[in-house]
Amino acid sequence: MTRYVVVGTAGHIDHGKSALVKALTGTDPDRLKEEKSRGITIDLGFAHLDGGDTQLAFVDVPGHERFVKNMLAGASGVDGVLLVVAADESVMPQTREHFDICRLLGVSGGVIALTKADLVDAETVELVSMETAELVSGSFLADAPVVPVSAKTGAGLADLRAALLEMARRAGRRPTDGPVRLPIDRAFSVKGFGTVVTGTLVSGRMTAGTALRVLPAGRDIKIRGLQVHGVSQSAAVAGQRVAANLSGVEVAEIARGDTAVTPGRFDATRRLDALLDLLPAARRLRHGARVRFHQGTSEVLGRVAIGPLVDRSGASAEPGDDDEHEDAPGALQPGGRAFVRLRLESPAVLTRGDRFILRAYSPPLTIAGGLVIDPQPPRGGMRTAAGRRRLERLRVGLGA
Q: Tell me, what DSSP letter sits at residue 230?
């Protein structure tokens, strides 16, 4: 049975992510005129590697700090990451930020490529390898293959391709028997066909004729046709990069951040309870702070209410009587973990167990990641013993 795996690139600007994807696949992921003229990736790019019984779809993300929100839209649906570090520069700020994002999103596998290896000597490659190992120590990439490579000369490409395919074969399969959930990362019009959207199918299976609903707008649509990796198909399953030709919607009525779902199986929400991890390098997060909430391909503004603290072992203080107020802090300290309630200014499509990223409102820096515990919480507060017990009960089984 063919395995479909989505791999996202990650790394600093000009470290050669797009050139590496092109060298691996033969497809230039930079599709915008401005990207080609400026020589940098601005938005998401896509390419496909045919590995026989293992099919890889690459989502190439921008490395510039100004376009991290675009990177987040691409990183949310990946099964593994290709972390790119230039051998002539080593670890840089967006290397760290992209790595933090992948870790906070729960990405479980990856390969590290040391690009531009033809520009430096073997001693420098070894030094950069050590600095990269220090960055990923103790993480999901701690034991990942590290492959020196040159997109220019082709050196190391065969080893990198083999490492990526091996990673893909170890990746878990996504559920195909559940409801359809397709976070949309592109929407455009094709002459003679009409509205087309693309995204990574997170769950479910869809065919021509499948009826879906676009949330949060609540607009009903129908699939007219499908392409998977650029080839017309009768069906698409979870884990595949999909282009879907739609009826029932104009291109102006749909955009990145929307989600196409099986009707009646998902809801949009403006309020959620979550378990939040604040990055050690972040500033303290104030109770009531305005933040940028990223989940799937969407970005919405909101405010965060800090609830009871949770230690890293997963334990929390024993709650008292139901009416007793918990000792919740006025701020979450760097490296801290707490239950939080997020109140969003626009609706988001969420379900229990979803991972998300928080960025500061200004400047928009990545500060935290979290796990949705309750996408439709009751109006009662979190700062009571009963509120804590409810959250502790709901987090069971989420691996947090």
A: T
CB 112 within 8 A of CB 99: no
- Superfamily (CATH H level) for 181-261: Translation factors (2.40.30.10)
Distances (CA, A) of 217 to 171, 253, 269, 346: 34, 9, 12, 11
Q: Select 268-395's CATH number: 3.10.50.40, 2.60.40.10, 2.40.30.10, 2.40.50.140.
A: 2.40.30.10
Helix axes 93-104, 68-75, angle to 10 degrees: 30
What are the beta bridge partners of residue 60? 45
* More confident position, 304 or 69: 304
Q: What is the residue extent of each domain of the chain?
A: 3-170, 181-261, 268-395
pTM for this predicted structure: 0.90
| pLDDT number for residue 354 | 95
Angstrom distances, CA of residue 326 to CA of 90, 172, 386:
45, 39, 9
C-alpha distances out from residue 110 to 82, 200, 294, Å? 6, 18, 22
- Residue 311 is given by DSSP the state -
Average pLDDT score over the chain = 89
- Per DSSP, 21 falls in state H
The predicted-structure confidence for 142-193, as pLDDT tens digits, reads as follows: 999 999 999 999 999 999 999 999 999 988 778 788 999 999 988 999 888 8
What residues pair up with 274 in beta bridges, in sequence order? 340, 372
Instruction: Domain 3-170: state its class.
Output: alpha beta
On the question of a common fold for 3-170 and 268-395, the answer reads no
The string of DSSP codes covering 183-213 is: EEEEEEEETTTEEEEEEE--B-EEETT-EEE
Question: Which uninterrupted H or E stretch holds 174?
Answer: none
